[in-house]
Amino acid sequence: MNFTIIKEAIAAKVGAGSSSSKVEVAPPPPTPTKSFKFNPFSKKSSTTSTTSFDTRTVPSTPSPRSKSFFGGSSTKTNSTQQHRQSIIREKQSSSSGRKYCVCFVTLAILGTAAFLTWKYALDQPTTWSEAIDGISSLDEKWDSINLSNFTNVLGVDKLTDIDFGNLFNKDPNEGVTAARKWKSEYIDNGKLYLTLYNALDDTWQTEFDVAVSDWQESTALSLTIERVDVDYDCNRIDGVMVICNANFGATGWVGINQNEILDGVIRSSVAKMNDYYLRNAEYDHRRFTMCHEVGHGFGLPHTDEEPHNEPLGNCLDYTDVPSANVNPGEVNLIKLSEMYSSTRRRLSGVDVKDDGTVVETIQW
To answer: Is the dihedral of CA 224, 281, 315, 271 positive or negative?
Structure first.
């Protein structure tokens, strides 16, 4: 066979085909390459075959398992996410509730503070100018609240212009005519056994000692005196009469007694001396006021409430001449005996015998 002719014929056929269309030639398959893996703990090193690919020419196809995080079902994942969202919503709701509660309490506190300021600090102003006046007087009110501050008390020159008899107008015991007894546990054998706490500062010790000595003339009283720390706040103590002094300001009263009444009997008592009027007052004014308020502490009422009439000679009588009423009077001592020393008969039982005799049992 003539191989030369056949070769030329094939070349001619290929040439004719290339002139009409291009022939696509597939790229060669990846060529396996060998890599050497060295294991220092093995006696023999191993050679493994790996295939290298050009990632730029290989399209990325998502795996069917990529829908779930770890290859699990997507339904389970959605359920977990919904549960977490539910917990978050509950926490947000609880947090919102707490915020609303805090806001409500804060507003209530602020509202209460505003009301108290309007009522007590500013004297209930109804106009803006009245509010300004109230604000400007706060310093003066603060001084009066500071009970141990005696810098603004009335001097001797101011006291001479005051009608002492008018300083009883705001006495809470005014109009009280009935006597009040102490609780029965403090009464024994016709006597009131009472402890007096001396919470006065040094400026009042003389007046206190004289008043107590005068009241101990009563056979119906047995008094125990205890000197305690000075208490300008005049705190109440159960079962005790506290006597104290402080600068209570321009209250309209020189002294006041506040008895705590429960079930019709006295449980505690506080006798207050107002140094706004009495710090620089004459001795007789101070002595009268001390005797007067301590007498109320025993439960005694006023003997007279007209300060401008003739003095009755006892310290439970209102007067504008204190020097005439510095001591307890006989009328006060008798009243104490009636309250604590006297006994009363009470019919506790009636028994009728067979012969018609009536036997009455009297309890003293």
So the answer is: negative
CATH of the domain at 268: 3.40.390.10
Residues 303 and 240 in one domain: yes
Residue 356 has pLDDT above 90, yes or no: no
Q: What is the domain count for the chain? A: 2
Residue 175 has pLDDT above 80, yes or no: no
Domain shared by 210 and 315, yes or no? yes
2-11, 34-43, 218-227: which has the highest mean pLDDT?
A: 218-227
The DSSP bridge partners found for residue 37 are 46
User: What range defines the domain where residue 114 resides?
Assistant: 86-136
Q: Count Cα atoms within 13 angstroms, Cβ side, for 281.
A: 26
How buried is 4 (Cβ within 10 angstroms: 0-12 exposed, 13-18 middle, 19+ buried)? exposed
Please choose, from the candidates 335, 328, 341, the residue with its C-alpha nearest in 3D space to the C-alpha of residue 290.
Answer: 328
Q: Residues 197-245: pLDDT tens digits? A: 999 999 999 999 999 999 999 999 999 999 999 999 999 999 999 999 9
Q: What pLDDT is stored for residue 183 in this prediction?
A: 95
| Of 70, 101, 136, the domain-final residue | 136
Three-state SS across 39-73? CCCCCCCEEEEECCCCCCCCCCCCCHHHHCCCCCC
Nearest 10 degrees: Cα torsion 261, 207, 201, 257: 20
Return phi, psi of residue 10, to 5°.
Answer: -65, -45
Tell whether 29 is covered by a domain: no
Same domain, 165 and 311: yes
Which runs of consecutive H residues, i.e. helices, occur in 117-137? 128-136
Average pLDDT of the segment spanning 141-150: 66
For residue 207, tell me if it sits in a domain. Answer: yes
Check whether residue 215 and residue 120 sit in a common domain: no
